[in-house]
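$ fold --in a.seq
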Amino acid sequence: MNTISDKPVIWLQNDRCGLGPLRRDLVDLYWQWENEPYVMTGNGRQTPESLDERTAGLDSQLRHSMNQARFTVYDLAEGSPTPVGMTDLVIQHRWRNAEFFILLGESGRGRGLGTEATRLTLDYAFNITNLHSVFLKVLALNGAGIRAYEKAGFRKVGEIRHSAYWHGQRVNEVIMDAIPEDFPGPSIVKK
């Protein structure tokens, strides 16, 4: 098993960002990112998860991956790959679609890595998993997230009213989708 100091496995990458498998030795980082107050409130959680719960959850995710494509996101700009977040495709094989999720820790935000990680995950979805569409829901007030998703190839397709909370206030969620014909590329897979 790799340790944080070992060179990680990276399946897809561009100049700035890479995607590799989830790693059990990174469970502490995943847990820290998921319990940042900004992330918790964006995901509608009110209470932090314990490290034991997250470890058990990761063990389950690593054992049951048939309907999921989960990735560790790496920042490649600083020389050695640095883990900064995760992406996830929850796949519905019958319909050839998936729901997309992304989580970046604080050090991964605000530098375009979200757009790059999303684009790489869509490349995987369309050109390896052969999905017909990928969709997501994002809080309507998350303008930066919406712009990043649009740059990566998602389009707004609707809105669910009063379906989420942000700091105790009801907020809408924007529904976005991406299809292979709209994928802006470039495709790392097809290179």
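$ fold --in b.seq
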Amino acid sequence: MSDKEIIVYSGNVKEEESEEELETEPISKLTKPSPSRKGLNGVKLLTEMYEIFSPSGSEHAMATYVSTWLSEHNIEHRFDSAGNIYTKNAIEGSRRILVNAHMDTVASAPADIIMEKRKDDIIVRSSNNQVIGADDKNGIWSVLRLLTDKSVRVPLSALLCVSEESGCQGSDFAMENHAEWFKDCIFCMTIDRRGNTDIIIENFDIVLSSDTLQKQLAEWGKPFGLRTTEGSISDVSNIVGALEINGINLFAGYYGAHSGAEYTSMKDLAKSYKFQTELMPLIHNYFTANPDKVAFTDTQKSYNWNQSYYGGSY
């Protein structure tokens, strides 16, 4: 297979085939998806993904799970030779919004997942002091829901990446070899930030959104108690730089990333998803009314890797 070849999946994968593929993956723990993932839009979907051990470079089981989920929802999708997944929702049209998350984690061993019910929340964490991979399976959870949410009337494209935690290698490969697949995208929304307050409009290496859009994003975030701020490094850096569009990295309701104390607040993840669904039509309308503002090239910052901190986007 050449580096630029993409394999297309039509959405008709048989359950027994996907399980067989999972069983052959040589890692210490695998999770066979539930008999049907249709309707798994809440905590069950999330915990099934947490139970899949998918460190950088060994994302096959997670990618198989996502592929099976997309197939059961009749969503055509593609793999490139690096393992990234490309797909779209059912809404036709140009001026698409690109939604992005990554499938790999920094886990060193499988996590045993437990849920703790609080008065107004559900906390999901591990019982064996292992990384659960909320960074960034919470982002994957959001993207899968957005692709199938009938209330979303905006055309979406999606890029689900490998090897973000080892230096954004998956998104770098995608942009180097397959950027044309996103030529009709006007904005990138990466969902890969800790907590419940942040709209990242600048990373250490690159400015993600223009000054005018930054001010607009701040206004849109106020009703949710959100703030625009700076982050570290994430896949959105590669994407906006290659496509020359605006973008953000959005909070995803996880805490303590890259540690055995990592946990997710379902209340905060739901808050993120609610904001995503309200933000997308605002963004789409904004760039429809202002097509001259789609291109954003003034993105580079003075940047010294030796003086920076690469810690993903948590």
